[in-house]
Amino acid sequence: MPETACLGQSKQVGKKAQSATTAAPPRMQRVRDRNQAVLLRAAERVFARAGFAGATVADIAREAGVPKANLHYYYPEKRDLYRAVLDNILALWLGETDGLTTEAEPLAALEAYIRAKMRFSRAYPDASRVFANEILHGAPEIGAYLRRELRQLVASKATVIKVWIKDGRIAPLDPVHLFFALWAVTQTYADFDSQVAAVLGVRKVSVQQHLDATEAVVALFLRAVRPDAVRRQRSSGKPA
Amino acid sequence: MPETACLGQSKQVGKKAQSATTAAPPRMQRVRDRNQAVLLRAAERVFARAGFAGATVADIAREAGVPKANLHYYYPEKRDLYRAVLDNILALWLGETDGLTTEAEPLAALEAYIRAKMRFSRAYPDASRVFANEILHGAPEIGAYLRRELRQLVASKATVIKVWIKDGRIAPLDPVHLFFALWAVTQTYADFDSQVAAVLGVRKVSVQQHLDATEAVVALFLRAVRPDAVRRQRSSGKPA
DNA sequence: TAATTTCTTGACTATTTGGTCAGGAAACAC
DNA sequence: GTGTTTCCTGACCAAATAGTCAAGAAATTA
User: Fold this and answer.
1) Pick from A18, A35, A203, B200: most CB atoms within 10 A?
2) What is the pTM of this model?
């Protein structure tokens, strides 16, 4: 993750670092953190609603309940705030694939991953939307991140999946495209929420409907990924 | 489809309708049509790149190669142009499901649908992105369309799929969520193109890579949808 | 050709918006 | 307390932008 959420004038660090380094964070620091957190949450909401260009700093400030000038004190430019929001989101993105290891039981691990992603879509739709919007417009801000961290992550997890396939534990599907599909489907329930609601004929997708969606998605992918029943393991791994 | 692409002052219609109604469209009409088409294409590109808020009419006019005031002659407001672009796109959306009928061979029909959607993603990425952007922001402009036409279309096709399932010709998956998944995955190759390229480690997704993606997506869904081999048809339909 | 309608466009305007700034209020250190 | 740093904010500004307008060019009709 790049340099996260520490924008705004940071002159205080110099003095502070000497007297109260490891001690409890001085109040001053806490004011800053608290305000930045409030601004980040507000910004996430507004950016999710309107995109980068559509969002105005005045909107964000209003949503956060602070004067615009105060926002600019912490985040001198709109883009700084946007970056901070994205960095925040990207941090969440990373941990999710942790369960996908060669040691894990493939189907269970994939199911858990899907459920985690679906939960995420429900819990943080704004984060997902900001992310989607950024990528939709060519990832001008996080392109470098995608080409580095994300690409490496996928490469690493693709290796795991290839091992699973070699051992006949899951069906022979292209691992990278499998990830694209998993992301696309799980995030569609956050990003395209309005479409889902429209087709389901409701104003807002209910909790139950989201649970149904989760089961449907799990069923779909598990069917796709389940090996063809014939011959199990072939070598290596933990044999029957 | 709502009232499509006929904005701008339309005073000419009154007079015209009398003299040359069914005859070849008078030149005047052709100038209008040609210019509107040019503007629509340009607008689609720019809206896809920047979203509604991020796009400026000056950008669109420049892309179309006409003065800004001329654009406003045909589309008095930015929103009119946006609506026209969306209406244009929605028209394309409709026909695609034509092959999904009870009579069709389910797996072949679904495969054809997927391939068509993937081709669409490649051929009209801008259309897809404008659409995605609109939905991402809550479908303020086409929400009504989604709740009416799209919902009805899905309901109708879901019926077809339920018949297929009842006859044991495809696996018992929720039809509506199957559609969400199909759309999500196929459109991800247009909308999230930049992410796909980043993960694949290229600047631009090549033709070959898109073909590979198509095969991967087809394989994934056909595996998911294929019935469990046990007992085929049960009643009705065209028996073996 | 003359009359009429459609089209074109440079120049202009009102509004919105990102960002600045100076002066003062808190918070903190000593 | 006194001094110093951090924080707050109303007022302001320059740039960008959607939309207007009037005057004229081009096309079309009679």
Assistant:
1) B200
2) 0.87
